[in-house]
Amino acid sequence: MRFWLTIRRSGWFEPSAIGSLFPFPFAWQAWAIMAAFIAAIAASVVLHGEAAWLTRILLCIGYIAFGVATYE
Predict the structure, then answer these.
(1) By the 8 A CB rule, do 70 and 24 touch?
(2) In the chain, helix, strand, coil percent, each to 5?
(3) Which residues is 25 bridged to in the sheet?
(4) Residue 8 has what pLDDT?
(5) How confident is the model at residue 2 (pLDDT cuts 50, 70, 90)?
(6) What is the C-alpha to C-alpha distance for residues 2 and 21, in angstroms, rounded to an integer?
(7) Is the distance from CB of 16 to CB of 24 less than 8 angstroms?
(8) What is the DSSP letter of 38?
């Protein structure tokens, strides 16, 4: 609960200017989170079949949810 209250409305991400689904990084913390997200997506290439797709979908959902939770 304390973690949630710390990140909520922290201003790390902001809505994308072009209206895309993915939150745009604003602060350095968000850029680090985005780099970790891209690295995790790239690392999922070693998985095969359904596990790979499920991992990528869950990573995308998690990134979007975390980004929206930290909107200013």
Answers:
(1) no
(2) 60, 5, 30
(3) 13
(4) 63
(5) low
(6) 27
(7) yes
(8) H
Looking up tokens 């745009």 gives: 24
pLDDT at res. 46: 92
The pTM of the whole model exceeds 0.70 = yes
pLDDT digits (tens, 9 = 90+) for 12-37: 777 777 777 778 888 888 888 889 99
11: CB partners within 8 A, 6+ apart? 26, 27, 70, 71, 72
Rounded distance between C-alpha atoms, residue 15 and residue 52, angstroms = 28
> Using CA atoms, how far apart are residues 27 and 54, in angstroms rounded to an integer?
29
User: Tokens 């350095």 — which residue?
Assistant: 28
Per-residue pLDDT band at 70 (split at 50, 70, 90): confident
Q: What is the Cα–Cα distance from 72 to 65, expressed in whole angstroms? A: 14
